[in-house]
Amino acid sequence: xxxxxxxxxxxxxxxxxxxxxxxxxxxxxxxxxxxxxxxxxxxxxxxxxxxxxxxxxxxxxxxxxxxxxxxxxxxxxxxxxxxxxxxxxxxxxxxxxxxxxxxxxxxxxxxxxxxxxxxxxxxxxxxxxxxxxxxxxxxxxxxxxxxxxxxxxxxxxxxxxxxxxxxxxxxxxxxxxxxxxxxxxxxxxxxxxxxxxxxxxxxxxxxxxxxxxxxxxxxxxxxxxxxxxxxxxxxxxxxxxxxxxxxxxxxxxxxxxxxxxxxxxxxxxxxxxxxxxxxxxxxxxxxxxxxxxxxxxxxxxxxxxxxxxxxxxxxxxxxxxxxxxxxxxxxxxxxxxxxxxxxxxxxxxxxxxxxxxxxxxxxxxxxxxxxxxxxxxxxxxxxxxxxxxxxxxxxxxxxxxxxxxxxxxxxxxxxxxxxxxxxxxxxxxxxxxxxxxxxxxxxxxxxxxxxxxxxxxxxxxxxxxxxxxxxxxxxxxxxxxxxxxxxxxxxxxxxxxxxxxxxxxxxxxxxxxxxxxxxxxxxxxxxxxxxxxxxxxxxxxxxxxxxxxxxxxxxxxxxxxxxxxxxxxxxxxxxxxxxxxxxxxxxxxxxxxxxxxxxxxxxxxxxxxxxxxxxxxxxxxxxxxxxxxxxxxxxxxxxxxxxxxxxxxxxxxxxxxxxxxxxxxxxxxxxxxxxxxxxxxxxxxxxxxxxxxxxxxxxxxxxxxxxxxxxxxxxxxxxxxxxxxxxxxxxxxxxxxxxxxxxxxxxxxxxxxxxxxxxxxxxxxxxxxxxxxxxxxxxxxxxxxxxxxxxxxxxxxxxxxxxxxxxxxxxxxxxxxxxxxxxxxxxxxxxxx
Amino acid sequence: xxxxxxxxxxxxxxxxxxxxxxxxxxxxxxxxxxxxxxxxxxxxxxxxxxxxxxxxxxxxxxxxxxxxxxxxxxxxxxxxxxxxxxxxxxxxxxxxxxxxxxxxxxxxxxxxxxxxxxxxxxxxxxxxxxxxxxxxxxxxxxxxxxxxxxxxxxxxxxxxxxxxxxxxxxxxxxxxxxxxxxxxxxxxxxxxxxxxxxxxxxxxxxxxxxxxxxxxxxxxxxxxxxxxxxxxxxxxxxxxxxxxxxxxxxxxxxxxxxxxxxxxxxxxxxxxxxxxxxxxxxxxxxxxxxxxxxxxxxxxxxxxxxxxxxxxxxxxxxxxxxxxxxxxxxxxxxxxxxxxxxxxxxxxxxxxxxxxxxxxxxxxxxxxx
Lengths: 833, 369
Known about the structure:
Enzyme class (chain A): ligase
Subunit structure (chain A): Tetramer of two alpha and two beta subunits.
Strand order of the largest sheet of chain A: 29-32-33-39-38-37-36
Helix content of chain B: 40-55%
Oligomer: heterodimer
Shape of chain B: rod-shaped
Number of strands of chain B: 9
Largest interface: A-B, 110 and 99 residues
Strand order of the largest sheet of chain B: 1-4-5-9-8-7-6
Subcellular location (chain A): Cytoplasm
Largest sheet of chain A: 7 strands, mixed
Radius of gyration of chain B: 44 Å
Structural class of chain B: alpha+beta
Number of helices of chain B: 13
Largest sheet of chain B: 7 strands, mixed
Number of domains of chain A: 6
Strand content of chain B: 15-25%
Domain FDX-ACB (chain A): 740-832
CATH class of the largest domain in chain A: Alpha Beta
Family (chain B): Belongs to the class-II aminoacyl-tRNA synthetase family. Phe-tRNA synthetase alpha subunit type 1 subfamily.
Number of helices of chain A: 22
CATH architecture of the largest domain in chain B: 2-Layer Sandwich
Shape of chain A: elongated
Helix content of chain A: 25-40%
């Protein structure tokens, strides 16, 4: 809402000396936030005066132009003295020819600065001293017209030497305010004036306080056929002069309010709308056929609106119709056929109250946002249509002539004023401030409420222009914002003991801290993907990652789905980094995946009470599965080449370390199983990650096809697992065994097994066979070569045995042999000599 | 070696002559002085203190002397050996000290060489700030509540007093799941978590809920379609705007030092009364206002920074969750986490938050190594 200060001051008598900044600060403190204060008028400094052209001579130039050397009288104070050649005047060279001797023009004199920083000085041009400039609309910032200079209309009553700034522009300040959806009265000057008066502690006389008259159908016949049309006032003006211009004050205020001046009838309806908050519509009475009926549209009906568009109407649309059919979308836009034209001499003014949500749906459906529809959406004062119509009619006849027909039409009614009771103690209790009841009453009365104190309760009658005041807490806010939020004190409420982070929340933090300490950098990516992103992962047709949730209104039509894997987003981050020459990368992301599990529609339980357990369960069941997921990707070097050694390329071990570090951070150990069929990984370089019996994800080098499809650096490695599953498996405490101080017994074994046998399985066999004496077993060498048959490998393990006594050599050897025996039995492992 | 002299027959053993013994000592001491390394001294020890040393051999000759002479010779040789041993030990200490001093010089390393044992990891500044914000409230005994990002319309709108025709609903640029009639969307705010907390937990209730939120918004330097909020909710007996104000001030001080907050009336469907909360500028503390000499880029010389929204929980919201509004009242507040990172860390461009450039996430590690 743009509120010109001059208009505001017309409506409320602010105390002497109240400046614009004070008014703006008060509005902001009331919740009508003033975002900017702007000045109307041109960005011109220096002398800009009215001049009369005394004479001129047209002088053709070599460049083909014909310049006009003029003598212009700019008033005694600014003229050059009279000479033999010229009377008192100034010499000015002008390129335009659209004026005659004797015309009044706008002259800018040396020393002035025009919009855009254009400084004026006396200069020699085309053989003359040009001592100023005759201005066009464009130069003045008044319009786009640069074809000729501005010739002043004699009716303006301007005289030579007058200040053209005052003549052409109204200097005004404009408050640009953010009006929140609840304060619909803030979309009217009278509503703002009431707020300003209340804040300044002065009275307010509402110029729209005229009550609605008796119902009457004496004027334009109107029938309301839908309960979405609450009331309708029609006044008829006859003998109107369609050529009459809009008065300057009106045009100035409309322009300052951001509304274009069009014609007197349209300007008047807009002016009264801005002032009263009530949208109005002017019909050409000659175009109306018979009775106006307000009804909902029939299926298949059409209307050509003012903007020339033929629109298909929906049964939900509220229409203004006459005997010819639809003539307007109620509260949104009129029809072409009944538009006020240059020939219109009889006007029917409509001021009606339509259902806000209905208007809202219609203007959104047709994409027809307007100042009128915005006001209807936020609910207009249902008590103001007659006063607004009356004011508009009077302005029309004042400035355009004609008469207001005494017969008016008013059908429908004004809904009864809302009443509520309020415990007066609620106001200080909720505000947490010591607001006396008397203050509350005074504030509410200034807001226009009828207040009756009954014991410890207040009986309130809410005026029609405050549809936002419904509940006791609305009243608390009304008092609070006018009492002043800055007068509220500060206290700290005390929660019951036992809060804080849950173990799962702490564990999640540990995981992130641990992988970051390991060297991984967290990134956040947008969760939107295309079907191609999933195809590029190479996953099977029945893979759950293809169960994509589609958005109805995606930001980017090429990415209409939500991710089921974090990897495409990480791959995009890799591409972004490598394009910026960040080539050594260890990135991770934690976030939700979204799997369309074919869930039913979400119910919308009634709001009057807590939903039933069944309803809550149905709400949960409707939502897609959204696993808490974590993923990482590495490429380039893990350690770059440096003074201390060669580079360590990032490889599969680093993504495995990511998973194992995450698990260790919450007291878990991941076991790995070679997996040759998990996309998007390399079939020979992928580990399935298992916690207990549960597979939580995969880690390894990416499949070369995936690397190619995503344009990743060769040998990029990735890991992705269900963090939620990991956190759920985390043990509450864990066990700390007694630490033996007795000496260790060491035994190394080298076992020859088939290539296909997994080292982890051999190790598990050794652990199982070695029994309780085993303290640790570490694989320290993998050998393939001359001494080993083809297709085999030698795995060398260092085993350490220890007990609560000094072990005899034979005991350790026996345990080792038992371990080897299990490996031999299970995998045909043969001990190397 | 001479044989034992049992019959006290005066007999002369040359090796035990005082002059000879003194000679051995002189030679040994000269050798000790001449040793310039521990290794040389070791040889000196072997030569002059060891079993084959002249003094050791002389010592064995003592038995060849008549008993009356043995004592004197024994004392002489013993003293000589002690003198040599001491000299060796003293020299050993000298040499060890010198050698250690030399080693400390020789082993010097340029400890300013870069150390890189692995890459430099970091959590995202958003993650770090969310944890920091939550910790302010965890320290007070509040809980942290979480909820799904893909949410039911009922939780995101209806239960928050945003009915189907509510004008504020259209302003939120909701990303709907296809088909929209299924009533599912990407949450536009973390407020649905408040509803879940109200339904799942008992009152008194003190929770913060951080998380991702989604809007069909522009993607530019100051707008992201996916960003983060942190909301707080308290429901207890006798909760007032003063409690809200005190809590916001505590939060501001914990995050930004000695600053305060202010509330400006505003509108949110789920709170009544509602307010916007501004943070006093933690850089200039308002001193840049009207002072062109000291402009402040953090608050654009306005003295206050828009931080979020807040208010008293609308009783309609509590009622929809089955809470007795005659007994309980509550407050709620919410802030943009991304915006907070922007003004707190001078981050100029929101797109950097989601493009994944490692340099962004590493911004707060104190510089590259």
